[in-house]
What does this fold into?
Amino acid sequence: MQPAVATPDRNSDLATAVVTTMRQLGVVGLPRNYEIFYEALSGSNPELSLAVVALSSRPTQEDLDRIGRRFFAQNHGPGIVEQARDVLARELEDIASLLRNERGHIEKYGRILNETSSGLNGRNELSRDLLNKIVGAVSTATTSTIDHGRQMAVTLDDKSAELETVKSKLEEYKRLADTDPLTQIWNRRAFDKEIARIYNSNRGILFNALILADIDRFKDINDRFGHPVGDRIIQIVAGIFQSSIRADMFVARTGGEEFALIIEGASEDTTFEIAERIRLLIEQTPFANTKTGAAYGKVTVSMGLCMASEADSPEDLYTKADRALYRSKVSGRNQVTRHSAMAGRGKNWMLYRKD
It folds into this structure.
């Protein structure tokens, strides 16, 4: 059975269609799921759209992850990191093998010395021939062991250098796997891990907040000026987000024109002020082609804010922040809505309630 996919017309809000479609299908509001449905409903990838249409009326998370790995491999698979780990494991095994061989050489040298010592015990007199044989055997064993030790030192030094190289590559792969290639800020994969971390401790729940942001009428921007201009606007907006918060705070592009900020150590009022400051900066930024001078008009963002203490889990936190974002969208855009301020307005949000 094919799902009832909502297809927005030119004047409809794509974000609304995504939320509605996911609700109809019973899809959990995870960032990676939003990415799939956003791209499918935007029509930018016909093959992806067909894959989503082919889903059952109640797709499983496994079905969605399979689509994610197929169409968004850079965000849905740790394969590149796993490959680096395999190389690292092989290098460590090589070193372990070298050390085992070294132990064998040392044990062999010890046996020669022990046998020589045993041969000397109980002898009152030693002939010159016997002394020459003993000295020769010990000398040969010692020379062999010293030469082997030198070679071992060189080999271990080489292996250490190789391990440092692999370690550097592994760290770089990990960074790339968590980085959005267009904006160079964190991506959805990194966001999934960061939002989950909040609920690992009581401190995380008490001192964290989530802000979700969405560029207003972004489809119109792409339709009027083309995707290259749209990409450039996304890059500029990402730069404003990143430069407007402390270095220890988290900002990610979670898909399309959507962003997420995790603010730690701030009250709800302070978090709201941060979101408002960013919103105003974006609104006041001139978006134009620096070469031709062509102006693209005012760009604005809508935001939704939820404190971690208002939610029971990462998924619940994301859903509530998304509800607040949706409220900003339907209330005229270019504004910040707190989830806490929506209390008592449940009648307007029935579409989110589960029976």
Remarks:
- The mean pLDDT is 79.
- The two ends are 22 Å apart (CA to CA).
- Strands lie at 208-215, 250-255, 258-264, 301-307, 336-338.
